[in-house]
User: Fold this.
Amino acid sequence: MNINEAILLGIVQGLTEFFPVSSSGHLVLTEALLNVNPPGVVFEVIVHLATLFAVLVLYGRRIVELILGAVRRRPADLRYLGMLGVASLPAALLGTTLSGAIARVFDLPLVVAVNLLLTGGVVYSIRWLVAGCDRPEPGWKGSLRVGIAQALALLPGISRSGLTVAAALHAGAKREVAAEFSFLLSVPAILGAAAFQIPKLDGSGVGVGGAELLAAASSAFFAGVVAILLFLRWLRGGCFHRFAFYCWTVGGAYIVYALVTN
Assistant:
């Protein structure tokens, strides 16, 4: 892998991590179409942590506010952190108990393409959800729904951001609140995914030089920042559901390709 390829992969990771189009689904379909191997575990961990840094930069003030609020035992902040904790549980439980079964789905690109079609359906439903959403938080039951949505997104082709925002909107949360909750929820999710990969970090999992890793991480970070800002803008503007057409196009195109080349 050269610098340009590393930058391109970083940009793709940064954009698809936060746009409701499933970064893991794109990875699986790209590997299947191009018959290429992934760049290695170290590369995956680095670009994921870079996208996490994008969240920390944009939502750093809110995170500090919640931490200080918890230290000072402010009820509203403790409640919000508790809801994030509840929402984090389903993915943690599913990821630790069914990791082998989930990993096998990554070898089934046709299933991933179908999952993209399903993601498109959920994303399109946001078009009708935003009208009556005015709550300042998703609530306890809503947080559990968001957590279940995030757990489903462990499957490649299912978008974490798309499903969690839709679930929060279903719970009546305001658009900005739904987005914030989804992005803050990504912090433990990304850290957990990185921690899960740590045992696999050995010399055979590197496969990429230091300069390429730095280039990929930098591009993933900046692409992640852009993706979050655009995500918020389009959600507020009422055109977020248009990502559904992209998911349907990519998923449908791969299904047709797979049928033709079977």
